[in-house]
Each structure stands twice: as structure tokens, then as C-alpha cells.
Recover the amino acids of this structure.
């Protein structure tokens, strides 16, 4: 048995991981054009509109609207639905707070569906169990860049007369059955923040084919102001989530890169999965047939019946071998309903609204054990990074290091 680097043995990964620049000449040209135009306000500029047209064309959707962030995009999508306060929105127990902020700002009640423990996406059967007379929408999250079972979620939404919203923040240019995620829902949201596959620093997009929602989206982005010459006379509450021309310029250029980025990440990520699947006790995220993964990250489960190590111990050893990894902290290391905001029902100061409200008829609580599969996932999983700049050799080093650590902690050696 080879000695771990953690205990003084030879390090597996001795060469640096492949690196590259995310921005190049096209981004510079687009930004300089925006500056030369001397207008950075989207209404009078060109870059945001050009970016929107490019995104619409790539996704085959009628409408795209740029906005200030991915969190804003989800909020806009929900706001465009104009759901009455107190309605419930069913979403995944594993997601980012950015998926949930807009729900609460619209005075809606989050309901959390448990996950499929192989994909870490919301389980359609669990979604259907939560539907009741107060359900207003289903918010599907494509966690880690792996498409959720969006076809079945679409059928469930249609059967129950519910709008379906897609959160594609981590799932750029990924496909389910050959169809791009973000084109199944009534409306979908994308993120352009620093950590996503493409970025404009911050920023987001909202896609829809529904003309009625497009009108609401444009108003919700911009204080419910008409920007087509009609008199300003807001008739509902809306924030200011405008995208600037500089964001639009960078995003427009980045869109030209996304297909190649996802193609490369998918090839590397599937190579990594294939290698990890051969290691006893190591269970990589399952990619069901017909789904393409963008590999925003790869979730890996450790089998406690096979390996005599905690996730923290395993990650420490793997890091010592030169492999970046961490226990599953992508949402703070817990199912999102375990955040203090839900445990204390403290969305607003000195109030339990909208969780508890006589006017809304709500009394929502989120006890530990609500979604046991999601909670167990955080105890047993860690995340590996995949970059389009990595090489096959980098991936093979990740596999060899994981095999070495798993071999050391194998129950057979205890």
C-alpha cells in the first residue's frame, strides 16, 4: 500500500493543472466599442440588445432579457408570473440562496423537494407529493450543471396547471434529450457571475417564449417603467435589475465561447467519472442516458461501508496529493432549508412573515429531516472541479490520486 502524501509519501500531482485566460480580444473589442459609444445605459445602448439577440438565437427562444445577476434573473422570472402572496413554490433542497431570494421577496413560500441521491437533482416524485391547492409554481434547478429530470417535471407542471421555471445558473448549454436546458420551462434564468462557466463579473439573463411573460419581465427589470414612449405609471412593485452596456458587451463575447467550453468540460468530466467509477467506495454523480453535464462541478459520494474515512479526512488526503477538492460546501454544507433564515423564519426584521401569516394563511416550518436524502448527501459527498483548461493528464492524475487515497482508507486494510 502506497504511503499517502499526507503522511510523508510521494505526492501524486506534481505538475500544475492546465490554466488559461477567460477573456480575450473579442471581449476587449466589445467593451471598447461600448465605451466609444459613450452610452452605458441599456435603453440607449446597443450591446445589451445585441447580447440578448445572440442568446435568443443560440437557444431558439423568442425573448431574452439581460439583467444584473443570476439571483435577479430568478427573481424576475418569478415576479413575471405575478403569483399572489402566500402561494407556494416547489424547488430543490439542494440549491443556492440565489434560487430562493426572489421567492421570499415576492412573499411566496418555498417548499423543498428531496433529491435523487444519484444525480443530486430534485426528484419528480417528491415534487408531485408537495403539490396542493396553494402551489403556484415549480422551480427546477439543474444542480452542478447536470440537467434535472426536466421532461418529467414539465409533465407534472402541465398536469397540474402550474408554470415551470428553470434555474440554469450552473447549466449553461447543457442538454436533456438533445434539447437545451432553459427551453423546457415557461421561463428560465441564467447567471453570469464570476464563478459560472461564462461571466461578465455579475449579470444574468431571462429567457421565455411567452409574449405575456416577456411584457412582465421587461417591466420587472426596470421599476415597472415603460421604455417604449408610454407614460410612466407603475402598476405593480418592481425593482431595478438593469444590465449595463459593459456587462452586455462582455456577455455577448462570452456567448461565443460557451459551446466549446461545455464540449471540453463534458469530455473531461465524463473521463473523470469513468475513472472514478472503477474505484471501490467512490461513487461519482450519475449522468443518466440522454443528459449532458456542463460540469460546473462534480459531486462524488464516499461509501461509508467501504471506506474508513470521513469526507473531511478523505479530502485532506486528496488535497495533500495535489488535487483541489472540498467537502460538499456548495450551499454551505447543508440543505438550504437548514439556513438560519428558514430555521428562524427570519426573512424580514422582527417578523416571521411570509412563513407565518394569518392574512396569507401560511404556517411553514422546515424541520431537520425534512429531506433526508439531501441531508445525507452533505454528510457523504465532496466536490471535484473540472475546468476547460485541464488536460487529459490532469484528469488522469485526479483519478490516480483518488484511487491512492481510497486504497489507503479501504476497509480491507483496517
Amino acid at each position: 500500500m502506497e504511503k499517502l502524501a499526507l503522511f510523508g509519501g510521494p505526492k501524486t500531482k506534481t505538475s500544475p493543472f492546465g490554466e488559461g485566460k477567460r477573456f480575450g480580444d473579442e471581449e476587449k473589442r466589445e467593451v471598447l466599442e461600448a465605451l466609444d459609444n459613450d452610452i452605458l445605459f441599456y435603453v440607449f445602448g446597443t450591446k445589451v440588445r445585441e447580447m440578448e439577440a445572440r442568446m435568443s438565437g443560440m437557444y431558439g427562444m423568442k425573448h431574452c432579457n439581460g439583467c444584473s445577476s443570476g439571483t435577479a434573473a430568478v427573481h424576475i422570472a418569478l415576479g413575471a408570473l405575478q403569483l399572489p402572496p402566500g402561494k407556494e413554490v416547489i424547488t430543490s433542497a439542494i440549491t443556492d440562496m440565489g434560487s430562493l431570494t426572489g421567492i421570499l421577496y415576492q412573499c411566496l413560500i418555498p417548499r423543498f423537494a428531496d433529491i435523487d441521491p444519484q444525480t443530486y437533482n430534485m426528484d419528480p416524485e417528491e415534487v408531485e407529493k408537495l403539490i396542493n391547492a396553494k402551489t403556484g409554481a415549480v422551480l427546477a434547478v439543474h444542480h452542478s450543471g447536470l440537467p434535472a429530470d426536466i421532461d418529467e417535471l414539465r409533465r407534472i407542471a402541465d398536469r397540474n396547471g402550474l408554470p415551470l421555471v428553470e434555474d440554469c445558473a450552473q447549466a449553461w448549454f447543457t442538454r436533456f434529450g438533445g434539447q437545451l436546458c432553459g427551453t423546457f420551462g415557461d421561463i428560465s434564468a441564467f447567471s453570469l457571475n464570476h464563478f459560472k462557466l461564462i461571466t461578465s463579473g455579475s449579470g444574468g439573463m431571462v429567457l421565455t417564449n411567452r409574449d405575456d411573460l416577456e411584457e412582465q419581465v421587461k417591466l420587472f427589470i426596470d421599476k415597472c417603467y415603460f421604455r417604449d414612449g408610454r407614460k410612466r405609471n407603475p402598476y405593480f412593485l418592481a425593482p431595478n435589475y438593469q444590465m449595463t452596456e459593459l456587462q452586455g458587451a462582455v456577455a455577448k463575447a462570452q456567448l461565443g465561447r460557451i459551446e466549446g467550453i461545455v464540449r471540453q468540460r463534458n469530455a473531461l468530466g465524463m473521463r473523470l467519472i469513468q475513472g472514478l467509477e472503477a474505484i471501490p467506495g467512490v461513487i461519482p454523480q450519475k449522468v443518466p442516458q440522454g443528459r449532458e453535464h456542463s460540469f460546473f462541478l462534480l459531486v462524488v459520494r464516499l461509501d461509508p461501508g467501504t471506506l474508513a474515512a470521513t469526507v473531511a479526512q478523505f479530502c485532506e488526503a486528496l488535497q495533500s496529493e495535489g488535487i483541489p477538492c472540498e467537502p460538499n460546501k456548495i450551499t454551505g454544507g447543508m440543505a438550504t432549508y437548514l439556513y438560519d433564515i428558514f430555521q428562524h423564519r427570519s426573512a424580514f426584521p422582527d417578523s416571521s412573515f411570509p412563513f407565518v401569516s394569518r392574512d396569507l394563511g401560511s404556517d411553514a416550518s422546515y424541520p431537520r429531516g425534512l429531506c433526508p436524502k439531501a441531508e445525507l448527501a452533505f454528510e457523504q459527498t465532496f466536490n471535484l472541479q473540472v475546468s476547460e483548461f485541464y488536460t487529459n493528464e490532469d484528469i488522469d492524475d485526479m483519478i490516480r490520486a483518488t484511487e491512492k487515497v481510497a486504497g489507503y482508507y479501504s476497509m480491507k486494510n483496517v
Observations:
- The two ends are 12 Å apart (CA to CA).
